[in-house]
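Morning run. Coffee first, then this:
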Amino acid sequence: MAPYESDDTTTARQAGEADERGAGRRRAARYVVPVTVIGVAAVTIGLVPAIADSGDPDLPKITAAQLIEKIAQSDVEQLSGTVKITTDLGLPDLGGLENSLASGAMGRGDADGSSADPTAKLTELASGTHTLRIAADGPERQKVSLLGSASEYSLIHNGEDVWGYDSESNEVFHGTTDGSAGDEGQEHQRPAMPKDFAEEALKSVDDTTSVTVDGTAQVAGRDAYKLVVKPRQSGSTVGAISIAVDHRTGTPLKFTLTPASGGAAVVDVGFTKVSFDRPAASTFDFTPPKGAKVTEEGEPDGGEQGGEQGGDERGREYGKPQGASKSEEDLAKGLDGLEVLGEGWNSVATFDTGAEGGLPTGSGGGDLDGFLGSFGDQVKGGFGTGTMFSTRLVNALLTEDGKVYVGAVTKDTLVKAANEAK
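And here it is:
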């Protein structure tokens, strides 16, 4: 880990110590993150102290190191508000197929899955613009509602209970935890908030990145500093990351990731309204509505009508694919051998699927090879031949010998990595 690019080593050391203290306070949680952000999470970030001397409102001057220390020390646990999230990955329109694939990957087909299951429901956040209403009161009580034009989906964690409710279908999903949001084994998911994205982007530091304070802004009626993160390396598809940090609490209020190619943000998540008062306890109460179909965690066919829970027997382990195909088993084995090539913003993840011959063939006579291939480009290099799949942020290369290379890097950088790994 490289030092901060500053002569003030005391400030750097204090910032590092504060980050460690902050890490102790932060509670781990599993959350839904668009797949492209995985590339950002692998990035390492170096600090270039800068002074916030422009913009509105007029706030005290602060360095980048001090602002990151402020984020690390933030211990806000009670809040409520409205969050707007926009994701524009440049993915092709699959006509809803992506939701079917997500359900299948979790071992839940459309025929027996619940529309209130958060695993499937929150995949909707991977594209388009959505509005969320959120509330939190410590690690044991959180509520997130995904607002639709004429419906609402709510995910409520209250003590040991986790409830998902889809008002459109009047379906309920029920699961349990040990009562702590910090449980590493917790399988239930929630959408990522600005703080989640910010922490992933600021996990470590080195000299591959510049981090500066670029003035101030108002977000959701709060005065905030703007922290801007940019790669120093060429070859990354990331243009810049902007994080608006509440100047009083140190809470990230807005996270924006723009691609190097320009245009609209790939990920833009921010509060439009926020309060740091404790929400009313009744916010987290939930009782299945009359006539609702209730599905217990691990029970594929759902429970009984009328808000009553189904039987105690678990049909299958939640989230585990049942009757996985040979190609799915090969993929799982490959992920166990995941390696990271390169460093910093040019990091490329690679693994061997063990399935030679390129794209898998669909079961039941379906030509999955041809279908997926229609969304990719054929490429050649020292590695051999393969298919390149691209979004506005992440590129992935699947070679004919069954290897996968993926990263938030340009196509040329990805091919170079595959050639060097051969």
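Residues 9-275 form a domain with the outer membrane lipoprotein receptor (LolB), chain A fold (CATH 2.50.20.10). Good start to the day.
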